[in-house]
Structures are given as C-alpha cells and as structure tokens.
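Session log. Operator J.P. requested a structure for one protein chain; no other inputs attached. Running the standard single-chain path with token output.
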Amino acid sequence: MFRTVLKLAAAAAIALASPALAQQQPGSPQLPAAQPAPAVQPPAPSAATPTAPVATGLAAAPAESASVKAAINVPRELSPWSMFMSADVVVKAVMIGLAFASLITWTIFLAKMIELSIVQQKVRSALKKVSNARSLAEAQFALGSKEGVLPSLLAACMREARLSAGISSDAGIKERAASSSAEIVRAEARRVRLGMGLLATIGATSPFVGLFGTVWGIMNSFIGISKAQTTNLAVVAPGIAEALLATAIGLVAAIPAVIIYNHFARVTKGYLELVNRASGAAARLLSRDLDRTHVSGSSRSAAE
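Structure written below.
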C-alpha cells in the first residue's frame, strides 16, 4: 500500500509538471487538470449610476465655457458711434432727439448773440445822437431814416401830438403817448426774448428724456442677461454702456441750454433797460414840444 501511495504522488507531480506526460502513461490514475482562474468581470452598471448623462454634461460644460470665453475674448468696440449703432431703436430715437435739441441750443446762442449785440449798439448810438435834441422833429432829423426802437418811439409821440392838435390837456396827450410807447416796449421785449422759452424747455426736460432712454436700455440689458443666463460683466457691460450714453447726451444738451438761458436773461434785461431809457427820452422831447406850444400860444395872445 505504501508503494501505491508513492506511485500516486509521483503521478500527481508528473501531471502537474507536464500534462502531456501524464496522458502518455496508461496505467497511472488521471487527475483533473488545473482550470485557469476566471477573469474578473466589471460590475454591471446599475440604474443609479449616471454613465452617459455624466459624459454628456462633461462634454457640454467645456463647450459652454469655450463659447463664453470666445465671447469674452472677442473685443467689442465701445466708441460712442458704435454704441449708438448697436443701441435699441427707442434709445436711438432718444439720442437723435437730444442731439437735435443740442443743435437748436447752439443755433439760438449764435443767433441771439449777434442780434442782441446789433440792437444794443443801435440803441446806444441813437441815444447818443438825440441826447442834445431840443424837439421831436430835431431828434428825428438827427436819426434820419434809420430803423429801430427809438425811431419808432419818436414816431409814436409825433403821431399822438398831431392827432391831439387843438386839445388843451397836456396830461391826456402824455398819457396816450406813454401808452403807445409801452406797447412798443412790450413788443420789443417779446421780440428779443424769442427763443428763450425753447432754451428753458430744453434745459429742463433734456435730463429726463435722457434718463428715459437709459431706463429703457438697461431694461433691455437685463432681458438679455436673463436670456443669456450669465452675469459676466464683460458680456452685459456693452448694453448698459449704450443705455448710459443716452443720459450723457441728455446732460450735454441740458447744461449748455441752462447756462445760455441765464446769460441771455441778463443780457436781455440790460437791453430792455436801454429801451426804457429811449422811451423816457421820447417822452421828455414830447413834453418839451407841448410846453413850447403853450409858450408860443401865450406869446401870440399877449401880442394881440
């Protein structure tokens, strides 16, 4: 039996060393061949493991990041003209209206400067010429055929004196002449103040019009932010800058209008003071003519 055990051990060793030799020995007992270890299979994906969605999300995230970076890296020109061209239609209309208002302001400024300079020079020159006149006729002769506020005042006084011939009440003649002179002064004041109301309107309303354009533009910018679903300042800043440009143009139109209005208010006040001086000069000449008429009438009565 001991020999049998040795034979079995030797056969097992031979089979393990060389399976081919074990098959060639017919008398030896056969042992089962060693089976290779089974390959480790990966666990089957469960329903809770997100394989494809995770891959899709990881692929989409770089794409979105690349698009945002591309939008940021592309520089956008932010000059006033480019911001105007890319602004909303309403904001463009506001900017155009404010630019037109600014153009009107500077046009009125140039026109009124020339006009007031000319009329002030005319009134000063006329007052200097009639300062030594003794009567209305002499003053009209000194002025000649020139047009202006002082010749109009002298003509009104002469007309009233002619129409009131034969009336002994000097107070009534002077009162009617003063009424005519006041009408001429008021008409001259309305003429020189032409355009001042437009300046006041532009100065008072331009900031609010520009603010309306800004509110409208920022509203559209926030709508764009909600659609883009990004709060990156480089993406939303151009729209906000376009909206703020409307307020800037409103201030550009309003500030000069207010300054020019205040300047012309002072200049117009000084010119109307000259007109009142001219009216007083005409009234004094009429009063002298009336007194001379009474003196000459008394002299003729005394001579008779």
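Operator note: The chain has one domain: 76-303.
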